[in-house]
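Explain this one:

_____
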Amino acid sequence: MNVNEFIKYLKELNIDISEENLRKFQVYSNLLKEYNKKFNLTSITEDKEIYLKHFYDSLCLFKVKKLFDNLTLLDVGTGAGFPGIPIAIVNPNIEVTLLESNAKKCGFLKIVKDTLNLKNIKIINARAEDYTQKTREKFDIVTSRAVAHLQVLAELETPALKVNGYFLPLKSHITEELENSNKTLNNLNLKLEEVINYTLPIESSSRTILKIKKQHKTPDIYPRNYNKILKDLKG
């Protein structure tokens, strides 16, 4: 995906990107390539791939309509800043908290924040189960592009979600995970409202966004220790 294609497909998401924000994405791409070996950030290192699989894919969260004005968003396991930083770039009215357990990656996130002067970003170096326990019912939106199972993500992340807020995981190959997650969603007082399937342009790979609403407070026993969650998942 070149820059012109990036602009074109963002318009289909109702995102009109400014020249200044285009410049920020190019600087972000350059920083990813510059610091990748030092911080082990991503296996995707070509500009066209970065724009498609990192920048555009992150911004596909805007397929979820009317959720992104003056809200607080927690991006769990953000890694090199996806999807949180692209969202923060295109909409400065969203307060984005980037949660990452790897201290070196947090160092990279700070470089990006400072270089791009992103005042609507906060960086937290902590484990998900520790941070979401301390920030219960705080955020309007919780999201991640993490590869962990949906049941794991839901338990680790949604305690930090406000009642009536939305858990929006970006996933691929979700069908089996979703079928096996009904009990977990019920235990966490979550309700699946919508499954948004889409295809990345150019390479035509399938993606899914789950729109899951938190109906009541998360029971106090959650989140459990990460290893306990995994043990129960494996049976």
Q: What stands out?
A: The chain has a mean pLDDT of 93. The chain is about 45% helix and 20% strand.
